[in-house]
Design a protein that fits this description.
The chain is an alpha+beta fold. It has 5 domains: 100 residues, Rossmann fold; 70 residues, ATP-grasp fold, A domain (Dna Ligase, domain 1, 2-Layer Sandwich); 246 residues, 2-Layer Sandwich (D-amino Acid Aminotransferase, Chain A, domain 1), CATH 3.30.470; 73 residues, no CATH class; 69 residues, RNA polymerase II/Efflux pump adaptor protein, barrel-sandwich hybrid domain (OB fold (Dihydrolipoamide Acetyltransferase, E2P), Beta Barrel). It is built from 18 helices and 36 strands. The strands form 9 sheets. The protein has an 8-stranded antiparallel sheet. It has a 5-stranded parallel sheet with strand order 3-2-1-4-5. The chain has a 5-stranded antiparallel sheet with strand order 25-24-28-27-26. The site of one adenosine-5'-diphosphate (ADP) has 19 residues, from strand 7, strand 10, strand 13 and strand 14.
Length: 618
């Protein structure tokens, strides 16, 4: 067994590899960019070396610096993780040429599977069913167009060098083909430096089914069953599970054998994933599942396979790279229960999933299930790297149980001020169609309305905010308001600012599951900033420096808590105005006297009308 290992990666995957290496007694060496020097993976490794500035091309993609770090630290082996250099055949060769052990696929297999068109040709030769389409050398727009017409629409144009969901265009009609091709080529050139494309039939009701395979240096290949990664957004995986819902034993056998055949065809060694696309319009059927591509590395979603097989895939990789045979034979592997993984991202579903960068002032992850994470509270989410915060992995006896556990865990996630997709994940995991297994790659688009964040906080959140503010506001100034309503409960009515909107909440004393910390409420994976309404409240106007209080919106005056001539304190509530179910409290901008009062309860006012004028003390 190797004794020391350099990990040419960062964050969550570096920590994941360190965990297993440590258990096996292997010394670990981290490499890191300048901005990553304080991160957990750097601390957790036995040794750590800087390899350059933040941009990946100046650090994590610098083959020379990584090899230099291996030499300096005396590392015996290099694990590339996923992403970065993991599927770079030249790097694999350089590692081997330097006399180091490469914990990855053989360079020849990486090359064979690196380009999607060549990989598919190889698979056709090996007798593996591939997605119907055009793989030819002739890349003229005319030829590609006529091939697309012959395949029949919709078609998918794919960059042959593509990956990570990039360089793909779905085309619905022949008239749209030329423009889609041009735009696909631009993206392929800028992202992969290669503008060649292939064309595939766009499979309807598509499900992404992939098979985990492992080969050893003795020529043995086994599979560790399938994963279903159909829950995607823009061709990128969001929730993955194993096994695949609705997969019967015969279909599983057929697809897993096809995957083993594919791996054997390229003399595969180590961990790999064969990705298939299935036409699930009539359920999963062996004759409607086609090879799509092979990823010659460990996969982000490997934990679901670990959960159902009880195996540690990183350990398998390290043993195989050390020359040991496969830890288990095919007939020793079985599926136990059901596992699901959700990718928690620093992104904002309310703004079309824009990445959310900044400092993780507050980060609390659930403790009820497996979490693979690279970040900790206080870390910075930057634009340099993948915005993944963590992977949440559940395991249960049934699919329902795994989904329930994962949904609950997503609801417990607390992140602030960075935004996350936790609430979105929870709503997805609880969606009746998801629970029924009715999932294909169009699920998120189809159910977008049910999944995006609520624009208004839940009643539980308002209650929690109001209760938190109750002691303060029920004192002095608020008692002044009581006279304006006959309701005996009026003194339990509190004005709160939640998510930069104002609400007048009748406190009902009900128990809620909302958690509060530092002025933020956490509920169902969503985070809401709250506080007492302030004078000159952001975006709503109301107070002004010259002491005139005008109506910030058209509405009805529902309470007036001062009379002409009264002395008022800065911040004291003067008037409550209501419009479109929203209530806003207008406050005194400074200490002074009510010089003019034009508002009375029940008045309808137009935006901009003068309500009160306060004259300062001096
Ligand atoms: P996978 O195919 O392993 O499920 P994706 O398709 O989401 O993963 O990943 C797209 C590319 O980005 C892959 O090359 C993957 O290795 C890489 N990648 C994804 N997430 C991360 C991460 N958190 N850190 C580093 N690389 C990543
Ligand atoms: P990448 O290298 O970016 O992972 P893939 O070829 O694996 O590219 O495709 C990514 C995703 O695009 C798949 O998971 C699937 O959702 C969708 N996709 C790919 N090919 C097809 C197809 N022929 N029909 C329908 N969807 C497809
Ligand atoms: Mg893929």
């Amino acid at each position: 067994m190797i004794e020391s290992l350099l990990i040419a990666n960062r964050g969550e995957i570096a920590r994941r590899i360190i965990r297993t290496a440590r258990r096996l007694g292997i010394r670990t060496i981290a490499v890191h960019s300048d901005v990553d020097s304080g991160m957990a993976f750097v601390r957790e490794a036995d040794e750590a070396l800087p390899i350059g500035p933040a941009p990946a091309r100046d650090s994590y993609l610098r083959q020379d610096r990584i090899l230099e770090a291996a030499r300096k630290s005396g590392a015996q082996a290099i694990h590339p993780g996923y992403g970065f250099l993991s599927e770079n055949a030249k790097f694999a060769e350089a590692v081997i040429a330097a006399g180091l052990v490469w914990v990855g696929a053989p360079p020849a297999a990486i090359r064979a599977m690196g380009l999607k068109n060549a990989a598919k040709q190889r698979m056709i030769a090996a007798g593996v069913p591939v997605t119907p389409g055009y793989l030819g050398e002739d890349q003229s727009p005319e030829r590609l167009q006529s091939e697309a017409d012959a395949i029949g629409y919709p078609v998918l144009i794919k960059a042959v060098a593509g990956g990570g969901g990039k360089g793909m265009r779905r085309v619905e009609r022949t008239e749209d083909f030329a423009a889609a091709l041009a735009s696909c080529r631009r993206e392929a050139t800028s992202s992969f430096g290669d503008d060649r494309v292939l064309i595939e039939k766009y499979i309807l009701s598509p499900r992404h089914i992939e098979v985990q395979v492992f080969g050893d240096t003795k020529g043995n290949v086994v599979h560790l069953f399938e994963r279903d990664c159909s829950l995607q957004r823009r061709h990128q995986k969001v929730i993955e599970e194993a096994p695949a819902p609705g997969m019967d034993a015969a279909t599983r056998e057929a697809i897993c054998q096809a995957a083993v055949k594919a791996a054997r065809a390229v003399e595969y060694v180590g961990a790999g994933t064969i990705e298939f696309i299935a036409d699930a319009s009539e359920g999963l059927r062996a004759d409607r599942i086609w090879f799509m591509e092979m990823n010659t590395r460990l996969q982000v979603e490997h934990p679901v396979t670990e959960a159902i097989t009880g195996q540690d895939l990183v350990e398998w990789q390290l043993r195989i790279a050390s020359g040991e045979p496969l830890p288990l034979q095919q007939d020793q592997l079985e599926i136990h229960g059901w596992a699901m993984e959700a990718r928690l991202y620093a992104e904002n579903p309310a703004t079309g999933f824009l990445p959310s960068i900044g400092r993780l002032d507050h980060l609390r992850l659930p403790e009820t299930l497996r979490i693979d994470s690279g970040v900790e509270q206080g870390d910075e989410i930057t634009a340099y790297y993948d915005p993944m915060l963590a992977k949440l992995i559940s395991h249960g006896a049934s699919r329902q149980e795994a989904a329930r556990k994962l949904g609950e865990a997503a609801g417990q996630v607390e992140v602030w001020p960075v935004r996350s997709n936790a609430g979105f994940l929870g709503r997805t995991l609880r969606h009746p169609d998801f629970l029924a297994g009715a999932v294909d790659t169009g699920f998120i688009d189809r159910h977008a309305e049910d999944l995006v964040p609520p624009s208004e906080p839940a009643e539980a959140v308002l209650q929690a905010a109001a209760t938190a503010l109750l002691p303060k506001q029920s004192q002095d100034v608020w008692t002044a308001l009581t006279g304006f309503r006959l309701n005996a409960e009026i003194d339990r009515q509190v004005a709160v600012d939640v998510g930069k909107r104002l609400y007048l909440v009748q406190v009902n004393g009900a128990q809620t599951t909302v958690r509060m910390e530092n002025g933020v409420l956490f509920h169902d994976g969503e985070a809401w900033e709250f506080g007492a309404p302030r004078a000159g409240h952001a975006g709503h106007g109301g107070g002004s420096s010259d002491g005139t209080i005008i109506a910030p919106m058209p509405g009805i005056i529902i309470a007036v808590s001062v009379a002409q001539g009264d002395l008022v304190k800065r911040g004291q509530p003067l008037i409550v105005i209501e419009a479109m179910k929203m209530e806003q409290v207008l406050h005194a901008p400074f200490d002074g006297k009510v010089a003019e009062l034009r508002a009375s309860q029940g008045n309808q006012v137009v935006e901009g009308s003068l309500l009160v004028r306060i004259e300062g003390d001096g």
